[in-house]
Amino acid sequence: MDVLADKRILIGVSGGIAAYKACDLVRRLREAGAEVRVVMTAAAAEFVAPLTFQALSGHPVHRALLDADAEAAMGHIRLARWADAILVAPATADTVARLAHGRADDLLAAVCLATTAPLALAPAMNHAMWAHPATQANCASLTARGVHLWGPAEGDLACGEQGAGRMLEPADLIARLAGLFARGALTGTTVLVTAGPTREALDPVRYLTNRSSGRMGYALAAAAAEAGARVILVSGPTTLEPPARVRRVEVESAAQMHAAVLEHVAAADIFIAAAAVADYTAAPAAHKIKKGAQPWTLRLTRTADILAEVAARPHPPFTVGFAAETERVVENARAKRMRKGLDLVAANLVGDGRGFGDVDSALEVVWEGGGTSLPQAPKARLARSLIALVAERYHDKNRTAQDSRSQDRA
Question: Which residues are marked as active site?
Answer without folding.
Answer: 159
